[in-house]
Please model this.
Amino acid sequence: MNNPLAPADGRGAPLAVARDVWKSYDRGRVEVLRGASLTVRAGELVALWGSSGSGKSTLLHLLGGLDTPDRGELQVCGLDPREERARLELRRRHLGFVFQLHNLVPDLTVEENIRLPALALGAGPAEMAARVRVLADRVGLADRLRHRAQDLSGGERQRVAICRALMNSPRLLLADEPTGSLDEATGENVFALLRELARAERAAVLLCTHERRFAEACDRLLRVRAGRVEEV
Ligand SMILES: Nc1ncnc2c1ncn2[C@@H]1O[C@H](COP(=O)(O)OP(=O)(O)O)[C@@H](O)[C@H]1O
Ligand SMILES: [Mg+2]
Model:
């Protein structure tokens, strides 16, 4: 639970803030979030824990600008993800996403997949290649750079997805059940690598999981229940 990068007083800069957020689907028939609030600060690894269908992904998508709330305030890295220009900026520079299913481009190589986000920033090839090597090395995939994503195992793909999410050095990583489709041992390994790499890269993490063991291995545990978020 010790996190050397979290400020001693636990008051790092707020990177993700939700205040009294409401969200329903199907024209209000499915009420998912009913006044959800949370804060994730710099240096933190925070678990968003709750049963399946409790609204974890919904909240993560709202913070990441992938969907919009019915009402409530959102602030991510100082920007409002409800605004289109802010969303672009967030995706390009401030946020990394890791999903349950890696979403890699199957016929691109490991290297090509990892560097994808940097293309939008117009980084030079040598600079990109060096960055890819640093990240791949951290997750033990330095010798797989030329392999196609489709030829990798599930755990390897997820390690590539973590590198890709961190390629542009985001301040915040949003991870939605990143171990959800892996077997137990592989899941532990991917979780540990995500935690280590995020710390090395000084990225805060908000990680959705329904698994208590992963939630408890985070610095702070937030529970999603009845449409709200409570500190555990
Ligand atoms: N696009 C959508 N349209 C209708 N219902 C949805 C949609 N997305 C999610 N839901 C419903 O909202 C609830 C919360 O979903 P979700 O946020 O994915 O939960 P979790 O990630 O905690 O499993 C579920 O009942 C789900 O069926
Ligand atoms: Mg989900």
